Amino acid sequence: LNEHKIYKSSGINAEYGGTLYYGYCAQSSVLEIAEGFTAARVILFDSLSRLYYVDETGSRTLIPVQNILPSDSCQLRDFESTISSSLLTIDKGEESFYNVTTATSSYNPPRTFYQVYPQGHLLVNITSAVSPEIVSRVNRISDTLQITGTDTKGMTVIVATPQAEHPYCLASSTDITYVVVECPMYRHIRVINIPETCDHLVNKSLDYTIPATVHSDKVDTLVTYDEAELGCPIIWAHDKDFLPEIWIYDYDEPVRKVDTDFVLREIHNRTDFNFSHSVSEVSCLAEPQTWETMNLTWNRDNYQPCFTESEDKLTKTESDRKYQILNSTGKNMVVLANYKANYTFQLTVLDPATSYCNLNTKFAVWIVDAPNSSDLGIIVLFLSCFVMLGLLGLSYLRYKGNILSKANMVLQS
């Protein structure tokens, strides 16, 4: 577009005064626009370098410049791109790519002009490769546009126009797309390795009771299992620490693994689980947030990591407290009961850099390869009795041995 020029003389030179000329760099001379032109008429030069007369009502009449110029003046031979007019929504930190190819019959390498506005919502990186085709005398340039969502929500317009776009080419070759940086519709998270069916469970009823001894209200609590919401429970070994693997999905398509901070909450107030590491063991510099301090409203909007030094030094009690935040590194894990137990967790992604979405999900974990908590108490009692009986038996044998030894000494004397 920068190669196009309109010349309207000032009238100082009598030879050219009051005449309109049109020209571009590839032409050796300018062309006079004479048909229908008067000094009183308004001339419009649009973004595609086309000329129009504009009357008092605003109606346009195209000035037939392309009929004056040679038919082979358009150097644009091909323009293809994956840019489409449909709306694209991407998340914070998420990438998308467009491919644009322009081919011209010019000896100079072709170029494609890009407009990105407004600025700030996207980071745009363009890489180009030029491939001249000697036989067909065509120069071709292939661009790859990498766009990345930033920390600023909003919509951006991207316009791609080949350099060889002239008003006398047969058709316009400008491609436009609209990119919105925000939470994509239907984005959610899933915990991986949840069984597809519950046929592996011996008890077909998924309802269960939380014993009063491990419930915050100290009452036996019946839980009605919601299979539609939770899916089937994950079966976990009683002697292994637990850490869920989480993925972001769009509809049913996996997008990426979540490797940032998240937390778990047992939604039925079960208390017999803990975490493997303390606050000091994960190297916190300030008192970390907990479900108790956040009053059950812990999420990406109010999350504060504990790795920035605070004026208030950690006390011994705070340092020894278990650290409740998890991530995919596995340094901190969930320690579940060593007996049969049923847990229903709500998982919340805390790190705001993960997504513009509030990412939550619920899932269940069951331990079935261990005795019940009540059975475990009976076993402990039985073992205690067995040990006591064993000690009494040893004491009796020792006492009997001492009596016999004294009796022998008396007989010998």
Please give a quick description of this structure.
With 413 residues, this protein is mainly beta. It is built from four helices and 25 strands.
Overview of the molecule:
The protein has four helices and 25 strands. The protein has helices at 65-68, 227-230, 316-320, 373-412; strands at 4-8, 20-24, 31-33, 42-45, 51-54, 60-62, 76-81, 87-90, 95-104, 112-117, 122-133, 138-149, 154-162, 175-181, 187-191, 208-210, 221-223, 234-236, 246-250, 253-257, 262-266, 274-275, 334-335, 341-349, 360-367. The strands form eight sheets. A four-stranded antiparallel beta sheet has the order 7-9-12-11, with no helix packed on it. Strands 8-14-13-10 form a four-stranded mixed beta sheet, with no helix packed on it. The radius of gyration is 39 Å and the shape is elongated. The chain starts with a strand and ends with a helix.
Estimate the helix proportion, in percent: 10-25%
Mean of all residue-level pLDDT scores: 81
What oligomerization state is this entry in?
single chain
Q: Termini separation (Å)?
A: 131 Å
Q: How many β-strands, per DSSP? A: 25
**Main beta sheet: strand number and arrangement?**
4 strands, antiparallel
> What is the global morphology?
elongated
Give helix and strand order, one letter per element, not per position: EEEEEEHEEEEEEEEEEEHEEEEEHEEEH
Low-confidence stretches: 1-16, 66-71
